[in-house]
Amino acid sequence: MNEKGVLPTAEQDVINAVLNQNKRWLYEIPCEWNIQLSAFSRRERCPVVWKFSPSNYINHEQFLPDNILTSYPIAKLLHFNAHVKPEYFLPNSIKISFNY
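Structure tokens predicted for LARGE xylosyl-and glucuronyltransferase 1:
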């Protein structure tokens, strides 16, 4: 908390402080459940296949070699660490179906 009593990242500061004092509450999940995307993201930290496009007309498998699809897990949860999100650039809302 800063001098004015404001939490710069809201509830995340509280959560981080509590978990920092209680590390036994933490559980490490597989990285495909928490993909961090930002200008400084490093894909080698958690190589995954991200099967996403704003168009239903693209067949992802035709662009990816077979060994990629079987060698890496499919991303489950993407976290955009930026103020501008991908949907900002798309004219319509994104509709995503989850068929796993």
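The chain has a mean pLDDT of 70.
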